[in-house]
Every structure is written in structure tokens, then in C-alpha cells.
Amino acid sequence: INGKRFLYTNGMTCNYIMIYRFEEGTDIAVPAGQISQSYALYNTDLIWPPNDPFKDDRSVFYIWRDVNGDGDFQSEEYTKTNYRYSFNFWIDRAGNVWESGNPVVCRKLAGLDSHGNPIYDDKHTETYKISGISSRIGRVILQEDYDRLILAEDVDNRNLGNGKIYIVDNWSKGNRKARYVCKFGSPRTTSMAIDGDYLFDCGWETGGSAYVTDLRTGKLAEILIPGPEVGGVGVTGMVDIGYGIQAYKKKDGEYLVFVEDDYLGKVLMHRWKPHEKAVYGPTSTYEAEKGKIGGGAVVKDNIYAVGGSMVKGLEKKGAHMTVSNISGPQEGNCTISIRYSALKSGIIKNLYINGEFAQQLSFSKTGGWNTYRYLNVPVFLKPGSSNTVSIKNDTGDAGEIEIDRFMVTTNKNISQSKSASSDSSTKNGDPGNALDNNPSTRWTASDNKTGHWWKVDLGIARTISGAEIVWGESGKAYKYKIETSSDGKSWTTKADKTKNTSTTQNT
Fold first, then answer.
1. Could you tell me the residue ranges of all domains in the chain?
2. What is the C-alpha to C-alpha distance for residues 165 and 150, in angstroms, rounded to an integer?
3. How confident is the model at residue 355 (pLDDT cuts 50, 70, 90)?
4. What string of DSSP letters covers 292-338?
5. I want to staple 422 with a disulfide (CB 3.0 to 4.6 A). Which of 258, 428, 454, 462 is the partner?
6. Which residues fall within 8 angstroms of residue 503, CB to CB, at 6 or more apart?
7. Closest among 66, 69, 60 to 36, alpha carbons compared
8. The three-state (H, E, C) secondary structure of 427-488, written as one string
């Protein structure tokens, strides 16, 4: 503001807006202002901030400003405000404070005082009634570059889970009607950020991941998952604050996404560039307790489970649960997200798809029986709704775990429309034929000798959940390797099938 930096913060439970100015030429932040109401610190008799003249009346909302410039609180520096403080606010580029509700409240910046403190008062406060949306507006973000107001409905504080996103276009031209766009992408959302055309959100169970939704289509575009650089999802926790994610779009189109992570007290940074098409397709949800259970597994009521109950007892050898009638996409490539709770890490169970062993599952601790996380597992399902997913304890692992639900998300083919190359090809067997979705065309090497290679350049580093290959001829056992590289020079083997004996054409 006027070439000076200011810092706006709040607490974990969003109880106030705290404003700081900076000492000239330093990074020392000095308390400059606050918008809040009187409250005790976490149900104690300790009142903060000090010298609050309204502390005996919790219905009073106030604005404090460091009038004498000493960076401390004096009783005469507090002023009542007739506009209720909202736990959910936004600071725009001009220093105006937007607060959620319907009408939306905007505390216009009235300037800086002689000590450099921002001035807010009721005289410079405006309200805006929004149509096309309910009265429960819980988040508000002004996107100046797009001249639009982003609103989240039916949410509050850190509980955004069932919220819906609306947009008011042409804000500066006087439009006040909201249009529905989408729901949040993440489960039990606590925090959201918006930059460019994308919504980024995370929450109680996302484990350091960020869910990305394209605001132009309302569809999930990407899930940014912590990689091996930070230890993977297994060493991430929950986001339990109202403003635990920030996103910044760089000039080259890349996004930097910062996510607060409780576990080991860190902030994760994701780097992401948008793609031409959504990576993830529709998501279907299946409640574990509605499946078939046995071997000692039981259904237990739990108010923290999405459907009110979950499956437990899987610590007993032979215990099992099976969910049927799961829909698989035409492509087959899916991610199953298992919502669970556990008190310790390293709990081993086995996953079966359509009665056949798929892989061993290793569950990490969630922090308590009432705290849930998702274990994401790439799988292949048959097209149609006849699939079954089972979790069995046939290893004898005695680790206790509770399963709440499954989410099945279709993974899209990320190699389509990308550049393919090979060491050789025939006249009609161009390497690009392998990506054209046309079963009558194919890549064909120049001869039938070993050692040939084919590769596709995905353009940027991507998380790969699996590979699907349709071989040129049925009834033959093709021998091959699948390798990946982030630079095209150093390659890592992901699958070694040089001793393959299977004659399945679709792998």
C-alpha cells in the first residue's frame, strides 16, 4: 500500500484479523491493527488482546489501531464496529478487507495514519447483496485481473467440506448475480486458494496433497501428491487451519502451491503446469459398511465416518470385506482412494480386485480413530459395474484399522496428443500411431529383432499411476521393459517383463 508492505494474519481457528506494518528497511513486523471480538484463549479465563474495554461483552465487535505508534494495545485505541467480524476474509490488492456473508462486507481502506497504520472504520465500509446464492456465503475472494468475485457457499471457518463454488462475473460493472461452478475437489476441505483459472483446495485428510479444479469447466484437473522428495504421503499430516494453502501463478504459466502440513511442522511446495485436458475423470463413492464382511470383521457406528459407520475387526486373520457393483471406465485405469483410520503405521492388508490379488497395502497412522486419511492405490477395473474390491487379512498382520469408504476415480490417458518417437519404424508404422486411439493403426519397428524402443514425451514431469499397452498381435508373449525419465537421459525401470509368458493382447 503506497509502496509499503503489510502483513495480515489470523489464528488457527480464524478468530481475528491481525495487521502488521514493517519497520522501515527491515523485516521486523509491528502490530498495527486488528479486527475481532472479545474472546478467551481456548476456553480459559485469559482474555487477549490486553486492555480490551469490551471484554465483558462478547457481542461487541471492534477495530483496534495502534494510534500512538508504540505497537502495543491501549484501551482508548479500540473502536466498536457495527459490522460483524467474519472468520472468513480476503485482503485485496488495494488493502480492502472483504468479509463473508450475504450481504458481503467490504471494509475499504481509508488511508494510512501518521505511524503508517492502515485505517478501517464503518464510514468507509460497504455491503453487497448477492443473488443466485444462499445467505450462507463462507468465503469470498476478489480476482481483480478477472473482474470477478469468487464465493463459497454453505461453509464456515475451517469446515468447507460440502461447500459449493460460485462466481460473480463483471464485478466492477455492477453485476451482483452469482453462477454455480463446482464443488470442492478434496474431502473434508479446510482451505482454499485461487489464482488464474484454477481452484486449489486441501483439508483434514488430504495428507499434503492439493486438489486442482478448472474453474472454466468445474472439473477436477489434477491432484498434486507429495513425492519422494519429501518422503511421500506417508510422512504428511492434515491441514487444520482456515488458510493453509496459497497458490501463485508465474509468468511462464507454472503454479507454485504451498500447503501447510501439521506433521513434522513443515510447508510443502508443489510445482504444477496446467494440461490441455483433465487428468482425472468422474469419481464414484462406495461405503465400506454396505459391503459383504466376514471372518471377524464387523460394522461399527462412528459419527466421524461419512455414512455414520465403518468396518473394523480387520486385525483378525481371515477377516475380510468386499464391496461389489463398482463401476469401471472403458479405459480401465483408475485410482481407488481408501478412507481409513489407524493408530500406527506399517499395517499390512491385501487388496483384491475381482477376486484376484492386486497388491499389498501399507497403511500409515492417522493420529486417532476419529482422524481419517486416504490411501491412494492405482488399479485396473473392467468396464461396467460388475467389479468387486476386497480388503483381506490373509497375512496375519494384527494391526488394527477402520475402513470408512472407497472413492474410485478414472485416470485419463496423459499420453494422448503428445510427441512419440522410436529407434525405427516401417512405412506405415509411425510411432505416433500408438497414441491415436485407432486400433487399426500401430507403431511397427523396422524388423523383428530385440532391442527396439518407443517413447513418448509428456512435456513436463507427471505422476504416473500405470501404463496400458495394446500389443500388435494376440496370442504372442511380448517381452519388454517400461522405463521413465525426467530428463530423457537417465532412465529408471518401472516394470521388467523381459521374461513375460503372458499372451494377453491388452496389458
1. 1-129, 140-278, 281-411
2. 7
3. very high
4. EEETT-EEEE-TTSTTSEEEE-TTSTT-EEEEEEEEE-SS-EEEEEE
5. 454
6. 474, 475, 476, 477
7. 60
8. CCCCHHHHHCCCCCCCCCCCCCCCCCCEEEECCCCCCCCCCCCECCCCCCCCCEEEEECCCC
403 burial class (0-12, 13-18, 19+ CB within 10 angstroms)?
Answer: buried
Give the closest residue to 16 by CA, choosing from 46, 53, 41, 44.
Answer: 41
Residue whose C-alpha is closest to residue 273's, from 459, 41, 71, 142 = 459
In the beta sheet, which residues pair with residue 111? none
Residue 415 DSSP symbol: T
Per-residue pLDDT reduced to its tens digit, 217-267: 999 888 888 876 787 776 787 888 889 999 999 999 999 999 998 888 899
Contact 64, 73 (CB under 8 A): yes
Q: What cell numbers appear for 144 in the block? A: 481483480
The residue type found at 257 is V
Contact between 109 and 1 under an 8 Å Cβ cutoff? The reply is yes
Residue 465 · residue 473 · CB < 8 Å: no
Contacts of 265 (CB under 8 A, 6+ apart): none
What are all long-range contacts of 249-254, with beta carbons under 8 Å and residues at least 24 apart? 249/195, 249/196
Cα angle 288-290-292, degrees, rounded to a multiple of 5: 85
Q: How far is 20 from 355, CA to CA, in rounded Å?
A: 60
Q: Distance between CA 60 and CA 78 in Å, rounded?
A: 11
Select 281-411's CATH number: 2.60.120.260, 2.60.40.10, 3.40.50.720, 3.40.50.300.
Answer: 2.60.120.260
Residues making up the chain, counted from first to last: 507
Supply the pLDDT for residue 281: 62
Identify residue 134 by its one-letter amino acid code.
S
